[in-house]
Amino acid sequence: MHRLYLDQFGGDRVQEGEVFIGSEDTAVHVKALRLRVGENVEFISFEEKKIYVAAFYNKEQQSLGVFQIQHVDDVLAESPVVHLFQATPKLAKLDEVAQRSVEAGVHGIYIVSTEHSDHVSEKSLLKQEGNRKGDARRKDEKGIVKECGESSGGTPTANKKMERLRKIVLSATMQSKAAVLPEVVYRGNLRDIDFSEYDEVLFFYEQATEALSGISGAKKIAIIIGSEGGFSQAEARWASKNFRVCSLGKRILRTETAAIPAIALTIHEANRGCKNNK
Q1: Strand locations in 2-76 (E)
Q2: Max avg pLDDT among 27-41, 51-65, 249-263
């Protein structure tokens, strides 16, 4: 069955037992499927965390497509739930980390600061956008633009770099047909984070000797990956007292590569010997 994603901010809506397609982006995907009347499609709503199975049956002027809902299911989180804590790399590499880790099956991406993080990139991620000095303007009653005096930065808006990452994550989620949209958040210094909610915390370190094992049945797992410079020895000592320090093998991997085998290996080991994982 085909799976599509509702853009409820773009005009798609669920109403009175029907799915109405109002977003042009969703309509493009619907048209590409060349659906026959009565053919079922799965629609994922990230906002409602619902899966709508609906049959295509009509087109009308007010909508780009209409589907009759057959049944509704709740979106169930896959097991295990895996969160990636990625030490801040260069921004260009962070784009790739976000895309590939979502495709590998991660459920959340948390950017953290470590001793060897790219601190220039961190400043870019934390920078608040707003009006530049002198850009504060308004229109008077006649529509004439007038200066309102100097602005000290204007009202801060969403950080453009983080918004870009979220769009990358959304695209990767749709491409991989996942039902859950991972969040992307900057979490600050790694050592200040409370990991008590996790069954396992895996600190992947290039000088570690222990292979990952013994996590079968874990339901919620945190994976910690270093930036280009890896982790310092002090951070490794700190991690060894609190977490499981693991190796990904003898080869030294790039930071944009390391998360992929770490996620895949973690999911495999957590599901080892388990049945009926979803």
Answers
A1: 2-5, 13-15, 18-20, 40-45, 50-60, 63-74
A2: 249-263
Residue spans of the domains in the chain: they are: 2-74, 81-125+158-271
**Which residues sit opposite 119 in a β-bridge?**
none
**CATH number for the domain formed by residue range(s) 2-74:** 2.40.240.20
With cut-offs at 50, 70 and 90, classify the pLDDT of residue 130: low
Q: Angle at CA 167, nearest 5°, toward 267 and 7?
A: 100
Could you tell me the fold of the domain covering 81-125+158-271?
Answer: Alpha/beta knot (3.40.1280)
Pick the closest to residue 225 from 93, 78, 80 (CA basis).
93
Whether residue 68 is predicted with pLDDT greater than 50 in this model: the reply is yes
Long-range (24+ apart) CB contacts under 8 A made by 34-40 are: 35/2, 40/1, 40/70
Strands of the chain (E only): list them: 2-5, 13-15, 18-20, 40-45, 50-60, 63-74, 81-87, 108-113, 137-139, 145-147, 183-189, 200-204, 220-225, 244-246
| pTM of the shown model | 0.80
